[in-house]
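ingest -> validate -> predict -> emit
validate: passed (alphabet ok, no gaps, 271 aa)
predict: started
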Amino acid sequence: MSSDFPKTKIGIIGGSGFYSLFDNAEEFEMDTPYGKPSDKISIGEIAGRSVVFLPRHGKGHCLSPTSIPYRANLWALKQLGVERIIAPTATGSLQPHIKPGDFVICDQFVDRTKHREDSFFHGPKVAHISCADPFCEHLREAAILSCRKLSITAHEKGTAVVIEGPRFSSRAESNMYQRYGFDVIGMTQYPESVLARELEMCYVNISLVTDYDAGLLGQEGDKNKAVDATSVIEVFNKNISHLKDLISEMIKNLPQERSCVCKDILKSAMM
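emit:
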């Protein structure tokens, strides 16, 4: 990578409906050993601090959840000096008390994907990273405190089940996930979070709930309408200002240096 690229410690990976984060950003095209990232990477300023933004699906949503070059995306951010990643996603609710428009600061995931490269360590080096607590606790705390300060309705923990996509679940699948006790359903929290962990970057998922997933039992009113992409984007766009305010508040209050376990995760992972 050229040394001309500026270095920054904070990265944001944005998903559906979140392609414009700041004005007057400088764009860079990058390449990695794993191919090109999803799109050009923008570097701008939020709350007085330099921030990298990467559109997860590419501008115009041209990449399906399975087609996203996750390894290239995370590698590129690491090469830019990123230490912390804030990763908002549009997700469906699997529980009646988690309503469209709510935020969920996830603390766990369940991987149900099938076709994704999910590690940088396929040999000759092999790392067995701990994913008992897959999301950075310090970033989670920053998100929670910022939601409280801004009076944003947020669930302070939750399990995200990550499906392959790009299709949405059948009612039977959705009902099964609800009965398992999962809280939200999405398509991109995995392997993005574990790849960041393998590169010793902090990662937090902020799930913006856009709908009740198909087949959800126990919600108020009649059987819920099946989710579709149009309604997801509509709800996401209605709440985009809250999300931007939250991210700005988080960045403003993040300490310059890290003291979490994420920065040293590989020390106990190598055999």
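The chain has one domain: 10-268.
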